[in-house]
Specification:
Layout lengths: L2 E4 L1 H7 L2 H17 L8 E5 L4 E10 L4 E9 L11 E8 L6 E6 L1 H19 L6 E5 L3 H13 L5 E5 L3 H14 L3 E4 L12 E4 L18 E4 L12 H6 L1 E4 L2 H7 L3 H5 L8 E4 H5 L13 E4 L4 H17 L1 H5 L2 E3 L4
Parallel strand pairs: 1-6, 7-8, 7-10, 8-9, 10-11, 11-14, 12-13, 12-14
Antiparallel strand pairs: 1-15, 2-3, 3-4, 4-5, 5-6
Helix pairs in contact: 1-10, 2-3, 2-10, 3-4
Bound molecules: nicotinamide-adenine-dinucleotide.
Length: about 325
Amino acid sequence: MQTYLIKKSDVAKVLDMESCIESVESAFRLFGHEKFQMPARTFLTIEEYNGDIRSTPAYIPEYPIAGVKANSDHPDNYKLDLPTKIATILLIDPKSGFLIAVVDGTYISNMRTGAAGGIAARYMANKTVNVVGFVGAGKQARALFDALMIVHPEIKKIKVYDIIRKHSELFAKYCTSGHSVEVEIVDETAGAVTGCGIVNTSTSARNPLFNDSIVSPGTHINAIGADTAGRQEMSSSILKKAITVVDDWDKASDFGEINVPFHMGEITRADIQAELGEIIIGEKNGRRSEDDITVFDSVGLAVQDLITAWNVYKRLMENEEYKSKLLDVSFLD
Ligand SMILES: NC(=O)c1ccc[n+]([C@@H]2O[C@H](COP(=O)([O-])OP(=O)(O)OC[C@H]3O[C@@H](n4cnc5c(N)ncnc54)[C@H](O)[C@@H]3O)[C@@H](O)[C@H]2O)c1
């Protein structure tokens, strides 16, 4: 039996943001109904190279598919001209344990993270959003922009702040290349927060980027950057004032935006309104009024990676031309 090797360029043939949003929304629905297994992620710290490797397994009986993502985080990788995060997803047949495919997970991780922010904005932001702010203008910001332009096509203006102005400039170019939006590059965080209907934070900050005093009523915040213990982008004052929703309580309280304030005792589980899947399936409410501030704390879930990778695999298999160009090996020979 053959195992397929699916490179980024193969993934990109069949994964656009619209289909990724569909996959990730079905992952949130499964999550809401608890129809999967997703044990705790493991961290392997490699101090001498300032990096870590995380493994995130999942099994979805109704598909049926199982798998695991190995995701490395090496902040010094820019010196090697490599991305900070590099991921590989193994798709495994749950009946036999046979390795169905090895899939590039770096592209999928970026796309599914953007999709999750887009879905959160669909369910939590106000209906009409004209101005969107970005604090941090890297890869996640681009994926978030793509997803937001699908779920809120009425967006007219982008405001961006990055500590490296060149990153803001490249991001501005990215936004205006496919959409008729105006982009304003601002020189401080507040410029990309105050007056925005949606604010996205995707930095590797370890201290709050801003506090509640500069957040306008009605704003929805996608807090994406903190996905490791010790990282934090929001102040506790925002999390307490806002309707705060997480993707997964267990993982968010250990690694997500809420991990630092939770372990410092500044917030408790009672400060968290829901997991996003519960809002999507209608079990809990999110926003109550147009003036509410809402926060989505995204850690990233293995089921999002697994469903997205599985859908990519199936679409490639259905297309004879794409299938014939895939690399394959017989690992068991
Ligand atoms: N929640 C998730 O599922 C998820 C998934 C992937 C990545 N992440 C996290 O998101 C963060 C960003 O990832 P990325 O791939 O976009 O990285 P990136 O390096 O491409 O971009 C990060 C950007 O943030 C900027 N920045 C850093 N500190 C800043 C600050 N204080 N104010 C403004 N800008 C600042 C950097 O200059 C850079 O342009 C990382 O911490 C990563 O671990 C989260």
